[in-house]
Specification:
The structure is a single chain. The protein is mainly beta. The protein contains 3 helices and 9 strands. It has an 8-stranded antiparallel β-barrel with strand order 1-5-4-3-2-6-7-8. It is globular and about 40 Å long.
């Protein structure tokens, strides 16, 4: 099976970025993303708060890569009450600021000041393979498990 029923493929690539590069991020609109990885599962609870005051709650399941870059996932949008109920589960949490930059996004982790990651999502694996990242990125960490959200949450716990 290519991917589980009702899931969509997330096709992305990720690169390290030197903290503070590019400059001026703090002046851009952003989202504060609070993720909780539910212990013993592949489930993520997310609260996203925009610098404009919008709040979005999501519950996500990632199934694992079925191709070199495609990772099937399912998102459910939640009410605040549903989010609060699920937030009582045991898990590891991490917070990041997400800035839209160069067609992708840069995630800056306040609790991990040496970690910033640029990520780009694609419509197809071919588009992902052909992509040339912006000059401000460093090493690619797409397949490096130590830079997954769950692993980063474990490092601040």
């Amino acid at each position: 099976m290519a991917h589980p029923k009702y899931s969509l493929p997330e096709i992305e690539r990720r690169w390290l970025v030197s903290p503070g590069c590019p400059t001026g991020l703090e002046n851009l609109p952003h989202w504060v993303v609070e993720d909780m990885y539910i212990e013993g599962t592949h489930l993520r609870l997310r609260k996203m708060s925009s610098s404009r005051g919008e709040v979005v709650y999501k519950f996500c399941k990632k199934y694992g890569r079925v191709a070199s870059l495609a990772n099937p996932m399912t998102n459910i949008y939640l009410s605040e009450a549903e989010y609060r109920t699920l937030s009582m589960l045991k898990g590891r949490s991490i917070c990041k600021r997400r800035y839209a930059v160069a067609g992708g996004s840069i995630d800056v982790y306040p609790d991990l000041p040496s970690v910033a990651i640029f990520e780009m999502e694609f419509e197809s694996e071919g588009d992902a393979a052909d992509y040339v990242p912006p000059g401000f990125v460093g090493d690619e960490v797409t397949r490096d498990a130590q830079y997954s959200g769950d692993a980063l949450a474990s490092s601040v716990a």
